[in-house]
Write a structure and sequence with these properties.
- There is one protein chain.
- Helix 1 packs across helix 3.
- The protein is globular, with a radius of gyration of 17 Å.
- The strands form 2 sheets. It has an 8-stranded antiparallel sheet with strand order 1-2-3-5-4-6-7-8. The chain has a 3-stranded antiparallel sheet with strand order 10-9-11.
- The chain folds into 2 domains: 64 residues, Arc Repressor Mutant, subunit A (Orthogonal Bundle), CATH 1.10.10; 162 residues, 2-Layer Sandwich (Beta-Lactamase), CATH 3.30.450.
- 35% of the residues lie in helices and 21% in strands.
- It is built from 8 helices and 11 strands.
- A hairpin with an 8-residue loop joins strand 1 and strand 2.
- By secondary structure, it is of the alpha+beta class.
- It binds zinc ion.
- The site of zinc ion (ZN) has 7 residues, from loops.
- The site of zinc ion has 7 residues, from loops.
Length: 241
């Protein structure tokens, strides 16, 4: 249960691997395999896998730890598998964003900074299309209107194993009525973020990720996350029940 993991210092291998994965994914739209890592960084299989495990403990990525090849499932803000949000850069499909919340931070990655990034997603309950266009952390436009982000997993359950379920729980909805219908469909209550509140939640990550090569470990601390969301004006009643 990697919550409240005391902050630790990254090894040099973890710092190098993280920087490489970010650069590779921004350039290619997919993550690297072990050969790509070896070719760029000279790391052996064991070195790369140990560094990936460290990055996963620090909630930078998710790998299939049982796989021989360190299958890289996620490296925020990217997802290796088809997620609920598709990102388009320079008018072309680039990659799947990790989730609706990650799509808010995504355009701040240095290679995308200053560009308009379009996100094609959908309302979680009725699958109606939801499109947002953003530049850095600013919303440029939204169709049909700025959506809300429904988060259906309590921070107390974030990262129980890894962050896959957390990201899965962060979805766009058209409005509060659609959120309520989604809650009935999946039998789970949640909380709603406006895009402004979402920006507040991800700002620290967006300002550091890839901008600061030595960005330190940010532990998952449920109480602090809930208090922070409340300070942004989010109604966190469902998380304090
Ligand atoms: Zn809907």
């Amino acid at each position: 249960m990697p919550q409240n993991v005391p902050a630790f210092t990254w090894t040099d291998d973890a710092v190098r691997l993280r920087a490489f994965v970010y650069e590779f994914w921004c350039e290619h739209g997919v993550g690297p395999n072990l050969r790509d890592v070896h070719e760029a960084l000279g790391m052996s299989r064991r070195q790369a896998l140990q560094a990936y495990k460290e990055l996963e403990l620090g909630t930078i990525c998710v790998i299939d730890t049982e796989s021989l090849n360190g299958n890289l499932l996620k490296c925020q803000p990217f997802s290796s598998f088809p997620s609920q949000v598709k990102a388009y850069v320079d008018g072309r499909f680039h990659s799947f964003a990790g989730c609706a919340m990650e799509s808010v931070a995504y355009p701040k990655m240095p290679p995308f900074s200053g560009k308009e990034v379009r996100f094609e997603s959908f309302c979680a309950c009725c699958l109606a299309p939801v499109t947002t266009v953003a530049k850095d952390l600013d919303l440029v436009s939204a169709d049909p209107h700025p959506p809300l982000i429904h988060v259906s997993l309590s921070p107390f359950e974030w990262n129980n194993v890894d962050i896959t379920r957390m990201c899965d729980s962060m979805n766009f909805v058209l409005d509060a009525d659609h959120a309520e219908r989604f809650e009935a469909q999946v039998g789970r209550r949640g909380v709603l973020f406006t895009l402004d509140q979402a920006r507040g939640l991800v700002r620290g990550t967006a300002d550091s990720r890839m901008w600061d090569a030595h960005w330190g470990v940010v532990p998952v601390m449920p109480e602090i996350i809930i208090d922070f969301a409340a300070s942004l004006g989010v109604d966190v009643t469902a998380w304090r029940a």
